[in-house]
Amino acid sequence: MNARELRRKFVDFFESKGHTRHDSAPLIPIDVTGKLDESLLFTGAGMVQFKPYFRGIAQPPSRRLVNSQKCVRTVDIEDVGNPSHLTFFEMLGNFSFGDYFKEGAIEYAWELLTSPEWLGIDPKKLCVTVFNEDDEAYDLWARVWRNAGFKAEDKIHRLDEHANFWPAGALTNGPPGPCGPCSEIFYQTVPDSEMAGNYEHDERAARWLEIWNLVFMEFEWRGHLKDPTKPHLGYARDGLDPLPQKGIDTGSGLERTASVLGDMPSVYQTDVFTPIMEEISARAGYELGSDGNKEAAARIIADHARTACMCVADGVLPSNSGPGYVLRRLIRRAILKGDRILELKTQFFSDLAKSVEKALGDYYLDLSERRELIERTLQSEEALFRSGMADGVARFETLLKSGGKVTGAEAFFLYDTFGFPLEVTQELAAEHGLTIDLDEYNEHLADAQERSRAAQGSASLFAETLLLSAAPNAPTFTRFVGYGTDRHRANLVQISPRFDEAGLTTGRFQACLDETPFYAESGGQVGDTGTISNDTFEFTVTDTWKELGQIWHDANLVRFEAGDVKGLNREAIQKLMQSGAFFSPVEAAVDSARLRDITRNHTATHLLHATLREVLGNHVTQAGSLVAPDRLRFDFTHAQAMTPDEIAHVEDLVNRKIAESTAVSIHPDVPLAEARKRGAMMLFGEKYGDKVRMVEIDNFSLELCGGIHVARTAEIGLFKITGESSSAGGVRRIEAVTGFGAYRWAHDRENLIKETAALLKSNPNDMPKAAERLQAQLREAKKIQGDARKRDVDPSSVEPKVVGAVRLYAQSVTSGDVEAGKLLADRLIEKDAAGVGLVAVSGNGRVTFICKVGKEAMRGGAHAGNLVREVAKIAGGGGGGSPEFAQAGGKDPSKVDAALEAAAGVLAQQTTGS
After folding, report:
1. Domain containing residue 182
2. Of 99, 243, 441, 816, which residue is 20 to 30 A from 775 by alpha carbon distance?
3. Helix 408-418, helix 371-403: angle, nearest 10
4. Is residue 791's pLDDT more than 60?
């Protein structure tokens, strides 16, 4: 039985037991309410999306669910390559929310695994573990084993919370959230003759393979971070409360179980890996299974290729933080394995996308739908890494030759300069039996982060005290009526006042209606504003948002017949709310003029998306957006900056579509399968139900969208692109205006042109010629100034100081001319690739340090930014820059000589580690 058949049989079995099939959540951890779980980087278990069901704060479509969840876990990354560990895998799971509990879960698992009608595994090859305090689970399993003809004590093993409480160790250490004891099912992977007879000994020797975990969700673990500034220290427990209803959460690894059913020694021999492994072995020129070292490298590459493709298909792109950093780390790790062990010296990783699609594409349709995006992203990331990889590896090997050690500072240098993730450097070090001082590495990383935060500034935040009051029988769901009207009679059913730091009311509230015409922020479209009022009170709505099926309105109370509500304490405002003063019918009115501007921009965003795909290619996919009344912003996947011609072409096509006055058609309640079949564009990471809302503009644009749109494209008016820039690695951003916003933009530009023409003493039509004359005059002035500088700058008198394999040229000048200092730094090393030029320019009570590093010196570890930062500290300043060129300032010119004298020592630390 292969993995495809196993996936089908698992779901079929539980559907026969009254379970409802549920789609996999995205790899981005979004739960069933659409809320991002910020405690996680990825979806790592089937239950992640179902947390609201376990907590009883959302109603499941059925009390019994079954699914196959795509997961990413990188905790055990060092084990990837062994027969069973993966970073991307599928987790087959069945779930119960207040329905069956331990007995049902155990009986279902046993029947599916051992019944000849289903998987038909020999019970002799199985054993189970239970939490050592869970007598109920032990007794239930004992009955199962005795009925199968086995002794319970031979087949059931009691273990502590770290092995049999989920999450591992959660009973003591958290984290906060649903948890409970668990029971794991294991398969014997070796013949009886190789078994030691002691479970824990055999399990450590990998003679037992976990194939299913049954989690008995009973509790909500409450706790707080021991130190909010040091989250790695973990949580302190506040309490362990029973959940509103007991539940079942099980997880069985598809790849592992498929390897068991296929009698295969590793997951890498299953059908969801075979095409990838065969492609890698063919490229590397070795036969699968013939070389242990190469086989391990090929497995790591295959695993990371699957993970990378699935991540990109789900909207995770390489970056330097969060999930994007994990993805970047995996890609670079795979490339290094391919280069160093399989000797795949040319670009290869992006080519594996085709074999990943071959292995998984029949089930994960996104792999084919986003094929071009996946390939382009992996190509771009591999090229980026390779551009610095040779220098980074050479630098690492230089470290080994010079002292046989890799300090934390050196590890950070490799990360900061060549893009080597710490984990990659650790692996390189481990190959030579070396370790890295992580404390020192983290010190350098923290210093860099602090400098970054200082540059960006910080915001002052305070936590508010919350209080919620609800009308009797208040619904838990808000019906949105805004597709057909911008005014509606409704009932205010929940209200929560906002408090200041002193605990007194501010006059600001959050209000919830049973029905509302206000659109809640989603899909990039901002929330509506307007008023909520009746004869007794009036609120101005400043924003609208949704959570757990309810639409909330941020509102300021501007009129209240019963008196002022500002400055009240909790008891006073609670008494007022409980009196029912607010729980009455209201008129909800959206700011219709603002909404019209928003709808223009939203429909224009759809036209822009379709046009970008037409001009740039089908790899373009939406990666984020903002639809506001005054502007629109659209992020999209594209590896390089758009050319001026491409921008002009896109702008022209969008305006042509607007001029055609094409009808914008809304198709509500379209089956998701039909929308896919028609090729509707879908947002990255968005979770869709069985029925979706489709927005169509002629035969040009077709997207799934819940937003508000114009009836015909002509209502948009003019469309003008105001900017194109980089948003993230592999992601570009377009900003634009429409309608009256485009008129205002054009009017402002007209005034700017008139002002500029006046400064040039020209009329607007002759501005280009006037600018050319000015540029010619400027070039001539710069040439005269440059010639003078060259005469003044003489590097021949500077004697270099030898520091290891590099030479330091240090010079002090008092002209105050920084540009002359830059020129001198260049000329000091223009004939010495192993040279480091350092110039101190003094004048006007300040000093500027300028550093230029030759290529050979940089390869040897010299870093201009780090060098000037350290020497500038001596002169009471700071700064930094790239490894090749940097500039820093100081406040005390009297310390110039001491700073330049110290430079050799700093350089010695960089290049020799001493």
Report:
1. 3-272
2. 816
3. 140
4. no
Beta bridge partners of 546: 551
How many domains, the chain? Answer: 6
426 and 475 share a domain?
Answer: no
In three-state secondary structure terms, 470 is strand
For residues 260 and 3, give the distance between their C-alpha atoms in angstroms, rounded to a whole number: 10
Per residue in 60-99, pLDDT (tens digit) is 999 999 999 999 998 778 788 889 999 999 999 999 999 9
Nearest to 535 by CA among 564, 560, 512, 507: 560
Q: How far apart are CA 346 and CA 746, in angstroms?
A: 49
Confidence of residue 730 (pLDDT cuts 50, 70, 90): confident
Q: Check whether residue 268 and residue 279 sit in a common domain.
A: no
**pTM of this prediction?**
0.66
Take residue 109 and report the two structure tokens written for it.
């698992």
pLDDT at 417: 67
Q: Burial, 693: exposed, middle or buried (Cβ in 10 Å; 0-12, 13-18, 19+)?
A: middle
Structure tokens at 100: 């069956």
Q: How confident is the model at residue 205 (pLDDT cuts 50, 70, 90)?
A: confident
Distance, CA of 879 to CA of 894 (rounded, Å): 18
As a whole number, mean pLDDT of residues 581-591 equals: 92
Mean pLDDT of 140-166: 94
Residues 321 and 429 placed together within one structural domain of the fold: no
Q: What is the pLDDT of residue 792?
A: 54
How many angstroms separate the CA atoms of 165 and 214, rounded? 10
801-803, strands of its sheet edge to edge: 801-803, 806-813, 835-843, 846-853, 885-890, 878-881
Quote the pLDDT of residue 685.
59
Closest CA to 376 of 616, 613, 730: 730
Q: Find the helix or strand (DSSP H, E) in which 533 lies.
A: strand 530-533
Q: How many CB atoms lie within 10 A of CB 856?
A: 15
For residue 430, what pLDDT band results from cuts at 50, 70 and 90? confident
Map 74-126 to HEC letters: CCCHHHECECCCCCEEEEEEEEEECCCCHHHHHHHHHHHHHCCCCCCCCHHHE
Token pair listed for 367:
């792999």
Residues 378 and 729: their CA atoms lie apart, in Å, by: 11
Confidence at 785, pLDDT banded by 50, 70, 90: low
Specify if 637 maps to a domain: yes
Pair 28, 73: CB distance under 8 Å: no
Q: Using CA atoms, how far apart are residues 452 and 116, in angstroms rounded to an integer?
A: 61
Could you tell me the two tokens for 383?
Answer: 């090229």
Percent of the chain as helix, strand, coil, to the nearest 5 = 45, 25, 30
SS3 labels along 24-84:
CCCCCCECCCCCECCCCCCCCCCCHHHHHHHHCCCCCCCCEEEEEEEEECCCCHHHECECC
765 in helix, strand or coil? helix
Flag whether 191 is in a domain. yes
Q: What integer pLDDT is reported at residue 549 of this predicted model?
A: 75
Q: How much is the mean pLDDT over the chain? A: 88
Q: What is the pLDDT of residue 303?
A: 97
Rounded Cα–Cα distance for residues 63 and 576 (Å)? 39
CA pair distance 73, 43, nearest whole angstrom: 8
Shared domain for 848 and 720, answered yes or no, is no
- In the structure encoding, which two tokens stand for residue 412, read together? 């950070």
Span 403-425, pLDDT tens digits: 656 788 888 877 776 667 777 78
Could you tell me the two tokens for 559? 């009129």
What 8-state DSSP symbol labels residue 828?
A: H
Cα–Cα dist 538/551, whole Å: 18
Give the contacts of 823 (CB within 8 A, at least 6 positions apart): 786, 789, 790, 793
More confidently predicted of 586 and 458? 586
The Cα–Cα gap between 702 and 667 comes to 10
- Same domain, residue pair 569 and 670: no
Q: What is the mean pLDDT of residues 652-677?
A: 93
CA dist 29 and 40 (Å) reads 7
Instruction: Tell me the pLDDT tens digit for each residue of 874-896.
Output: 999 988 888 899 999 999 999 99
